[in-house]
Every structure is written in structure tokens, then in C-alpha cells.
Amino acid sequence: xxxxxxxxxxxxxxxxxxxxxxxxxxxxxxxxxxxxxxxxxxxxxxxxxxxxxxxxxxxxxxxxxxxxxxxxxxxxxxxxxxxxxxxxxxxxxxxxxxxxxxxxxxxxxxxxxxxxxxxxxxxxxxxxxxxxxxxxxxxxxxxxxxxxxxxxxxxxxxxxxxxxxxxxxxxxxxxxxxxxxxxxxxxxxxxxxxxxxxxxxxxxxxxxxxxxxxxxxxxxxxxxxxxxxxxxxxxxxxxxxxxxxxxxxxxxxxxxxxxxxxxxxxxxxxxxxxxxxx
Length: 278
Hints:
- The chain folds into 2 domains: 4-133, N-terminal domain of MutM-like DNA repair proteins; 145-268, Helicase, Ruva Protein, domain 3 (Orthogonal Bundle).
- The chain contains 6 helices and 11 strands.
- It has helices at residues 4-18, 40-47, 145-153, 159-164, 174-184, 197-216, and strands at residues 23-28, 34-36, 54-58, 61-65, 69-74, 80-85, 94-100, 104-109, 116-121, 257-261, 264-268.
- A 5-stranded mixed β-sheet has the order 2-9-5-4-3, covered by helices on one side. A 4-stranded antiparallel β-sheet has the order 1-7-8-6, with helices on one face. A two-stranded antiparallel ribbon has the order 10-11.
- A hairpin with a 2-residue loop joins strand 10 and strand 11 (264-268).
């Protein structure tokens, strides 16, 4: 699943491709992707004549800013956008097509059909789900040390589960949670309430710095991820534990282990990320 750095790379590429484009029509081949309005025909009708002015982002959500509406899009596992000429063959996994006045088309392709699109009146998108349920991003002003400490101290959950909770901190997914915990020296099964003030400070700093480094590298191209230019990221070459089961830890030489935590495959170094008895 694309996480914050990958979605940011998609956002930047989309701005270059579609800012200023006027939508003349919308083709919806898989209506279940459209979550609001309830009738996908209303989605199609509302977008006709709208111009895309900008593309914003919150966590893993893309936000297309139009004349009168905001289109909130989540790529889920394998969703992606690409620009095509009208005469280009349409892939069988293309489920939504935005037709532009210049003859070009923005196509949404999603092999698993897990992606979602919500259309809201401009200005209301932050007051209703899904955006209203999101916590702050790791490098936002709202993600203060006091806020983070409060969230960690009031739960019995392990730290990996908390970091994956988008209502607490948004943008971190399985890849970057594993990396952040390794860089912080914290075991993924550690109870969140047992973290010291110093560990929380380090964890907060590493969450922000890890995501920023990945954004600068265009994200991690794991599985099928590419931006809307069809370009891959390079941060997968910097990953220290994720996807490295049984390989030597870069820091200490111990074998990286993989276990299941919070229902997700989890990579960690048992030597660098020891779990104590609390």
C-alpha cells in the first residue's frame, strides 16, 4: 500500500500533469469505488465542467481541488493515476476515467478495486469522514510531544498498533512503522504506555525524519508502486529492516526477524530492538 511518501510523490506528479485541466466527462466502470455521493451518476454529473486547480494531500489521501468540489481519493493497495491520450488503449483494470477538454484523459487503474473516491462540496471535506478521522502527520505542528505522550499513555496497545492507527498519527503504514521503530531502537511489541519520555521524543523525531527522507527519494517502490509519471522511488534501497527477513542487521549483524504484530507482518532486529519486562 502506498504510504505518505509515495502518495506525496503521486501528488507532485499529478500537479504537473493535471493542474488547470477542465473535466468534460467522467466514465465510471466500477461504481463501488465511488463512496459519495451514493449514486455514482451524481458523481459524474457534478464533475462535468469542473477545473482541477490543485492537488493537496493529508496522510495517504489525495485531495483534488476543483471549482466547487473536493475529490478525496485513497489509492489503497494498488491504485494509481496516469495521463493518456484519448486514443490510447484502455487497460482492463482502469475503473474511472476523467476526460479533459484538450482530449487527454486521467485514468484511475486499480487491480484489486480497493481504492475509494469521495466528492464533497468545497470546504466541507474536513468536517466529515474520511478526512475528519485523521490524526496529525508526523511533521505537522499539531504532532507535539505532549500530544504524542498523551496518546501513548492512555492505551494498552503495543507501539506498532498505535503507530498504524491513522486517527493518532496519519501517513505511517507497515513499511515505515517498521523502519521508524528500528531507527528508534524500540521493539514493535513494546506496550506503548511503557515508553519513557526520551524514547517518545526519539520516536517522534524518527517518524518525521524517516518520512522526509523517503519523500526526497520519491518514496519506496515496493511491489507495484510508481508515481503518475510512471517513475519509481528509490527509498527501498535505504530500508534497514522491512523486507529483510533472515538477512544481517546493518547495525549489529544479527538476523532480521519477521513476526506478526497487530495483524501485520513485522520486521525487526532482536538485538537492536530488545523487549524488556515491564
